[in-house]
Design a protein that fits this description.
The chain is built from ten helices and 13 strands. By secondary structure, it is an alpha/beta fold. It has a seven-stranded mixed beta sheet with strand order 1-3-2-4-5-6-12, sandwiched between helices. The protein has a six-stranded mixed beta sheet with strand order 8-7-9-10-11-13, with helices on both faces. Keywords: Signal.
Length: 316
Amino acid sequence: MNSHSHIQKQKTPQQCPNNKVYKIVAVLAIQNKYTRYVGEGMFKAFNSTNCFKTKLAYTNNDPYVEFETVHKFITQKYDGIMIQPVSPESAQYCGLLAKYSSVLFGNLVWIPNFNGKPYFNFVATVDAVKIGNILGGYLIDYVNSGKVIVIQGIIGERFSSVVNQAFLAKINNTGLTVAVNSQGFYDQNITIPVIAQALSGNPDTKAIVTFSGEMGNGVAIYLKQNGIKNIVHISVDCNVELAEYIRENIYVRATAYYSGAQTSLLIGEQLKAKLLSGKANYQNTIQVSLVTKSNLDDILQQDPFEYNAFVNRIPY
């Protein structure tokens, strides 16, 4: 099986350490707005020097394709790999392969549940428990009681599972009850019929929670098309469309925000530092914040979800 990939070629530098052009690849699980922003973050990280040739590759959320893809780039003598893993287990296998091949390896979505240092040189830590607590806390404050529809990314996936567990724990023993707990596969178009079916069976729903901005867009589209304005909807992360919905403050009220572009920017900077100077940070914490209409623009100015200067380098 072959992964889909896109390469960004850069001019051979005049002066680089060891007179070498280093090869870097980001191996991403899926293609959507979030991973487009991740790609932009990587390109920004290496834009300040011509000592790197950067590439994107995609695995269609398949752990076997993921392992084959990482193996391929290792055999092609890549110097650094950053991965948005299909699962913690698949990331471990890839990390061990990279380690024993002396290839630097970074995890773009690290949710700590074991010691990652045997597998990764650098991790971007995303506090999924905090995300779940933000989602639950917001509904406790602004809804208080009633039915909730939850749309996870992928049921059983590590990120979705940790967010879901934290959310359920937060609303436990409150007036909020989960009527539907489904999945939208991080896809706007898949999410629309999911929310349509969920609301058809639960027309008295008071709140909706979506575990990604892409799925948040799908819910917002459905609510707007059907004139449903009395349901409180909170999402996770952000994109251009979701930001506009939050500014409108009708079909999306808030998001538990973190930036995918920051994950690749930080890991890219650590890869660059390690290769050029021999020093880098293992732990790189990604900021997670509650974002509403009132603080949206300030947060995005400090912590953007995209870098438009690099959008033309993304193949979709």
